[in-house]
Amino acid sequence: MHLSVKTRTIAWFLLAAVAVYVVIILIFGYLYYTTRSIGFFRATTRTMEEIDFIKALYFSVVSFHTIGYGDIYPISHQGRMILMSQSFISLFYTSIFAGLLVYFIIKRHADIFTTKFIYIRTRKDNWYLSIRLGNRSRPIIGLTGKFEAWHVENDSRMRVFTYAADMSDLENILYFDIALDASSAIPLRLALTEALGGGRTLHMKFNFIGNDIKSGEQVAHSVRYDSSKLRFGRIFLNVYSWDSDGHRKDFIWGNFEKIEPASEEEIAGFKMNSAS
Fold first, then answer.
1. Least enclosed by CB within 10 Å: which of 33, 195, 238, 262?
2. How far, in Å, CA of 254 to CA of 251, rounded?
3. 226 has which bridge partners?
4. Opening angle at CA 78, ends 77 and 84, nearest 5
5. Are strands 118-123 and 230-233 parallel, antiparallel or unpaired?
6. Check: CATH 3.30.70.100 for 112-275?
7. What residue spans in the chain does CATH classification 2.60.40.1400 cover?
């Protein structure tokens, strides 16, 4: 059975919360039992009896939940101090548990990712600067992406290029492409060529913002690269196939970062054309 990232996260959180709860109950039950600081009042005989470990655990549970039936209660100053400590811990534990549970249920988790490298790739004799986006959760709609590139000189940020564009909906796979053959991208292409030749380091940042298609929650993602993360390529390898109804299936996320390599001639041609 395949569980989503969010379901697995909630399941692990609940498991951890139960484990912490059990530990707290056992610790305070042990303290009540070993200190002999609580007693059991038997109403039928109106006598106070010593408690065993099971009754100590029972008192630990009802004290944690501030129920207080009155059949067992502290009979010493030490018992009252232990009880106050457990009540204090239970107050904060319950509040934190409830808050985190709501957080995990409502929040969309980090199920969006981008390629580790930024690619200069060629398609049909055109060059693009490309980032591949992946999404393992619900589609994101209304996306706007922004790309920036800059140098650092004398502790100052020298902007080289900026580009912003509306993007298609991100269902599973999406590409953010900048056409490097466009006249507006000449500064970027020159900066890329200089960085690849061992010149100044080029810093780059890509971010997008959109909305979860189901919850309407705003989703944002940002990633930074520098020129050491530049790679050449052609076409990204597929991470899925199609069924007869036109739906994506058989995802192979291991192919997400894989790309058909560009030839040495293509790389040399890119650098030569950029330099000229």
1. 238
2. 9
3. 203
4. 90
5. parallel
6. no
7. 112-275
Per-residue pLDDT averaged across 178-201, rounded?
92
For 240-265, the DSSP string reads -EE-TTS-EES--GGGTT-BPPPPHH
Contact yes or no for 5/137 (Cβ under 8 A) = yes
Tell the burial category of 47 from Cβ atoms under 10 Å away from its Cβ (0-12, 13-18, 19+): exposed
Read off the pLDDT of residues 205-228 as tens digits, 9 standing for 90 and up.
999 999 988 878 888 999 999 999
- Token reading at 81: 């101090």
Cα(153)–Cα(119) distance, integer angstroms? 25
Q: Which among 168, 185, 174 has a CA at the least distance from the CA of 135? A: 174
DSSP string, 178-237: EETTSGGGHHHHHHHHHHHTT-SPPEEEEEEEEEETTT--EEEEEEEEEGGGEEEES-BP
What phi-psi label fits residue 102: left (phi over 0), alpha (psi between -120 and 50 degrees) or beta?
A: alpha
Residue intervals in the chain for CATH 1.10.287.70: 5-106
Identify the CA nearest to 79 among candidates 56, 101, 112. 56
Averaged over 10-38, what is the pLDDT? 91
Q: Which CATH class is domain 5-106?
A: mainly alpha
Greater confidence, 116 or 75? 116
Chain centroid to CA 176: 21
Report residue 276 as tokens: 């000229």
State how far the alpha carbon of 118 is from the alpha carbons of 14, 30, 33, 126, 142, in Å: 38, 58, 63, 17, 23
Cβ proximity of 46 and 77 under 8 Å: no
Main-chain phi, psi angles of 184, to 5 degrees: -70, -20
